[in-house]
Specification:
The mean pLDDT is about 95. The strands form five sheets. Strands 13, 15, 16, 18, 19, 21, 22, 24, 26 and 28 form a ten-stranded parallel beta sheet that branches. The chain has an eight-stranded parallel beta sheet with strand order 12-14-17-20-23-25-27-29, covered by helices on one side. Strands 5-4-1-6-10-7-11 form a seven-stranded mixed beta sheet. It starts with 5 loop residues before the first strand and ends in a 6-residue tail after the last strand. It has helices at about 35-45, 60-65, 85-90, 90-95, 115-125, 165, 180-190, 205-210, 220-225, 230-250, and strands at about 5-10, 30, 35, 50-55, 75, 100-105, 130-135, 145-150, 150-155, 170-180, 215-220, 255, 270, 275, 280, 285-290, 295, 300, 305, 310, 315, 320-325, 330, 335-340, 345-350, 350-355, 360-365, 380, 385-390. It is elongated and about 85 Å long. By secondary structure, the protein is an alpha/beta fold. The chain contains ten helices and 29 strands. Bound molecules: uridine-diphosphate-N-acetylglucosamine (UD1) and calcium ion (CA). Uridine-diphosphate-N-acetylglucosamine binds next to strand 1, helix 3 and strand 10. The site of uridine-diphosphate-N-acetylglucosamine has 28 residues, from strand 1, helix 3 and strand 10.
């Protein structure tokens, strides 16, 4: 399959009114990363080039995606006239003659690269159009897959369904793979004579079927196609993402005593044989080596923790906290932009910010660094082996 070229078009121009937000819908984060970036990453992992169709908040969307996908092409859909119209905004890219065209939605953040790859495989086997379907007991709102004699003949949008069609539980997940040779011709043939007056890319199915092309449906799990329209669905997607990552972490050798209470960021890294106790939150940018312990109720972001170090319970590590091997940061301690060197202890009710604490130093209870004079932060340096008595303000 790797010898087939592929373009993945990510549709992200929708309004997202049901989010009731000033932020464009596709920029709402899952595990701290905008949902559209999750989709773009899956598309890149499935192989090939990616083009993004933005509309609402296009500049913001572009800026959010660019760092994660250098060189991604962004097209702007000025007027939202439907999904086929959106795809056609990328006609210049599609027309470059790719073997495969994938179309995915920017608000379906849990789509996985292997589902995209599976759809591409069907193209490689000779299908012209592949639709990713899923089964649900609550099909209202989704396009229904209309099959006849084992072949997919049409997708009917919910609003256009007859009562009988409304009972179909095999639904369109939104993702489509189309043979690159036919893609533009099929999209161009779509009309807007439906209940919403939109150009639906789902009509490609009936058009292709009538032209004698091979149209098939694959079945994906619900998480792959979970579309986010409101904040309840956003929370549902977050929960599924967290569950996936907890499992990956455990299978890679990390002990989670109460997995359901640990929250990861998209970029959390933890080495094997580290133990994470209940109720720990990892914000962005945390790297933990193997063999460390993160005790209960700790909150970490932008922190680095080396082998054998211990954090918490009730510790807060803020950006720039850097704990060397066997360092300890205990209960009700906050560390920011500070190196705690090998074997040093900061154990009780302490704030260490903009500081360097030498190896094996011992910082007494209630110690704080107060090195900000209102204008600049003056780094506090404490040498190796120093003993700082309790209740010191440095
Ligand atoms: C779509 C499918 C439906 C499927 C459902 C799965 C169509 C016509 N319908 O319906 O069969 O069951 O997804 O969730 O495809 N967009 C644009 N520009 C537009 C219109 C939409 O970029 O002019 C983008 C949206 O941002 C969104 C995606 O396309 O990411 C889907 O559009 P949406 O209006 O949400 O389609 P649904 O009604 O959910
Ligand atoms: Ca939708």
């Amino acid at each position: 399959m790797t010898d087939r070229s592929c373009l993945c078009v990510v549709l992200a121009a929708g309004e997202g009114t049901r989010m009731k937000s000033a932020l464009p819908k596709v920029l709402h984060p899952i595990a701290g990363l905008p949902m559209v970036v999750h989709v773009v990453r899956a598309a890149l992992a499935a192989g090939g080039d990616v083009a993004l169709v933005a509309g609402n908040g296009a500049e913001k969307v572009k800026a959010a995606v660019a760092p994660h996908a250098p060189g991604i092409e962004v097209f702007v859909q000025e007027q939202r006239l439907g999904t086929a119209h959106a795809v056609l905004q990328a006609r210049e890219a599609i027309g470059r003659g790719y073997d495969d065209l994938l179309v995915v939605f920017g608000d379906t953040p849990l789509v996985q690269a292997d589902a995209l790859a599976a759809a591409r495989r069907r193209l490689a086997e000779g299908a012209h159009v592949v639709v990713m379907g899923f089964r649900t007991d609550a099909p209202a709102g989704y396009g229904r897959l209309i099959e006849r004699e084992g072949r997919l003949v049409a997708i009917r949008e919910d609003r256009d369904c007859s009562d009988e069609e409304k009972r179909i539980t095999f639904c369109n997940g939104g993702l489509m793979a189309i043979s690159g040779a036919h893609a533009l011709e099929l999209m161009n043939a779509v009309r807007n004579d439906n209940a919403k007056g939109e150009f639906y890319m789902t009509d490609v199915v009936a058009i292709a079927h009538e032209a004698g092309l091979t149209v098939v449906a694959t079945e994906a799990s619900y998480d792959n196609v979970l579309g986010i329209n409101n904040r309840a669905e956003l929370a549902e997607a977050e929960a599924i993402w967290q569950q996936r990552r907890r499992r990956e972490m455990m299978l890679s050798g990390v002990t989670l005593l109460d997995p359901g209470s640990v929250h990861f960021s998209h970029d959390t890294e933890i080495g094997p044989d580290t133990v994470v106790e209940p109720h720990v939150v990892f914000g962005p940018g945390v790297k933990i080596a193997g063999g460390a312990v993160i005790h209960a109720f700790s909150h970490l972001e932008g922190a680095t923790v080396a082998k054998g170090a211990a954090v918490g319970p009730f510790a807060r590590l803020r950006p720039g906290a850097d704990l060397a091997e066997d360092a300890k940061v205990g209960n009700f301690c906050e560390v920011k932009q500070a190196r705690i060197d090998t074997g040093a202890k900061v154990n009780h009710l302490t704030y260490i910010g903009d500081a360097v604490i030498g190896a094996k130093a011992n910082i007494g209870a209630g110690t704080i660094t107060c090195n900000y004079d209102g204008f600049s932060k003056h780094v506090t340096e404490i040498g190796a082996g120093a003993f700082i008595g309790s209740n010191s303000a440095l």
